[in-house]
Design a protein that fits this description.
The protein has 337 residues and is mostly helical. The chain contains 12 helices and 4 strands; from the N terminus they run ββαααααααββααααα. The strands form 2 sheets. A two-stranded antiparallel ribbon has the order 1-2. The protein has a two-stranded antiparallel ribbon with strand order 3-4. The longest helix is centred in the last third of the chain and has 36 residues. It is globular, with a radius of gyration of 23 Å. 36% of the residues are buried. The N terminus and C terminus are likely disordered.
Length: 337
C-alpha cells in the first residue's frame, strides 16, 4: 500500500512467481476515491483538532468554573492532528495512481507520523476509559487517586510509548521502482516481519487496547445502571462525562474496526503461507480513509457534546466583545472631547 503505516501492509504491488513482479491493478475510480477521501479527511480533521487544542489550552489558562478537560483530551487531539498531517502526501500520491513523487525521507516520515498518531489514539482512549471506570468505581477518592500532575505524566508516558512503537516504520518503509512499471516509484514496505510477530504486533497495538476500551465502558455502564452507584444516577455531570467517553470510543471503533479486521485477515493469510489476495488488499485500501476519519470524529464529538468547549468559546467571545465595546467607547469619548 503506497500510503499506509508499516503495520498495514503493502499489497498493490508484490513479488510473486518466477517471472518477476506482478501488480494488483486498482479498481476503476479507486485512485480518485482515495484522493478525495484523504483530502476531505485532512480538510476537516486539521481545523477541528487545532480548534480543540486551542479551546483546551484556553480552558486551562483561564481556569474558569466547571469541569476542565484534563491532559488526556488535548493529548488525543494532538494524536489526531499528527495522524492527518501526512494525508496531503497520500492524496497527491493517489491522484497519480499510487506513484510517489516525493523524497524517501518524506515517505518514511509520513508513515511514522501516521503510525505514532494511531498508536497514541488507541492508547489514550484506553487510558481515558480506565479513568472513567475509576471515577465510577471510587467517585469519592478519584480526585486524590488521579491528580492533574499524575494525569499529565500518564499522557506523556503514552506518547513516549507510541513514538517507540512506531519506530520500526523508519527502517521498513522506502521507495521502490518495479522493473515492470517503468518510471513509477512507490512508497512501500521494503522490509517485512515474520507473520507471527506481525500478528503479535497487531494484537498489542490495537486488539488489546480496543478490548480494554470496550470492557471498561461496559463495566461503567453496568455500574451506572444499578448497584452501589444507584443513587449517583442523578449526578448529571458523571453521566455526561461517561456518555462522552463512550461516544468517542464508539466512533473510534466504528472507524478503525473494518480496516483492522481486514488487516488481521491479511496477516493470518501470510501466516498460513497463502499468496497475497488483490481483493483483500484493495479492500484494505478502500477502508483506510474510514480509519483515518476517526481524527475527524473524535474532535467533533468533544466540540459538539462536551460542555467545556462551548463554555470556553462563549467566554472568549464575550471577552472579545467586551474589549471591542470598551475600545469603541474609549474612541468615542476621545473624539467627542
Amino acid at each position: 500500500m503506497a500510503n499506509s503505516t508499516e503495520e498495514y501492509g503493502d499489497y498493490y504491488y508484490y513479488n510473486g512467481g518466477d517471472d518477476g513482479s506482478h501488480s494488483c491493478q486498482p479498481p476503476p475510480g479507486a485512485g480518485d476515491f482515495l484522493c478525495t477521501a484523504y483530502s476531505l479527511t485532512f480538510a476537516l480533521g486539521l481545523p477541528a483538532n487545532l480548534l480543540l487544542l486551542l479551546v483546551a489550552g484556553a480552558q486551562a489558562w483561564q481556569r474558569g468554573p466547571g469541569a476542565a478537560p484534563g491532559p488526556f483530551v488535548p493529548a488525543l487531539a494532538l494524536a489526531d492532528l499528527i495522524l492527518v498531517l501526512p494525508l496531503p502526501l497520500w492524496a497527491d500520491t493517489w491522484r497519480r495512481e499510487g506513484s510517489w513523487r516525493f523524497s524517501e525521507e518524506a515517505c518514511r516520515a509520513g508513515a511514522y507520523l501516521a503510525a505514532a498518531g494511531a498508536h497514541a489514539s488507541v492508547l489514550l482512549l484506553a487510558l481515558t476509559s480506565l479513568e472513567r471506570l475509576l471515577a465510577a468505581a471510587r467517585p469519592g477518592t478519584h480526585g486524590r487517586l488521579r491528580p492533574r500532575s499524575r494525569a499529565l505524566l500518564l499522557a506523556l508516558w503514552v506518547w513516549a510509548t507510541a513514538l517507540i512503537l512506531a519506530m520500526p516504520v523508519l527502517w521498513r518503509r522506502g521507495l521502490e521502482a518495479p522493473s515492470s512499471q517503468q518510471g513509477a516509484t512507490y512508497c512501500t514496505e521494503t522490509g517485512t516481519l515474520p507473520p507471527g510477530l506481525s500478528l503479535a504486533y497487531w494484537a498489542g497495538t490495537f486488539a488489546l487496547p480496543l478490548g480494554l476500551i470496550l470492557a471498561c465502558n461496559w463495566e461503567v455502564g453496568r455500574r451506572l445502571r444499578g448497584g452501589p452507584l444507584q443513587r449517583r444516577r442523578r449526578d448529571r455531570r458523571m453521566r455526561r462525562s461517561v456518555a462522552l467517553v463512550r461516544a468517542v470510543a464508539a466512533a473510534f471503533a466504528a472507524c478503525w474496526l473494518p480496516f483492522r479486521a481486514l488487516q488481521a485477515a491479511g496477516l493470518a493469510n501470510r501466516w498460513r503461507g497463502g499468496a497475497p489476495s488483490c481483493s483483500l488488499c484493495w479492500a484494505q485500501e478502500v477502508t483506510a480513509p474510514l480509519a483515518f476519519a476517526s481524527a475527524v470524529a473524535n474532535p467533533t464529538v468533544y466540540l459538539l457534546c462536551a460542555e467545556w468547549p462551548r463554555r470556553t468559546l462563549g467566554c472568549l467571545l464575550a471577552r472579545r466583545g467586551s474589549a471591542e465595546a470598551t475600545g469603541t467607547l474609549h474612541t468615542s469619548s476621545v473624539t467627542l472631547g
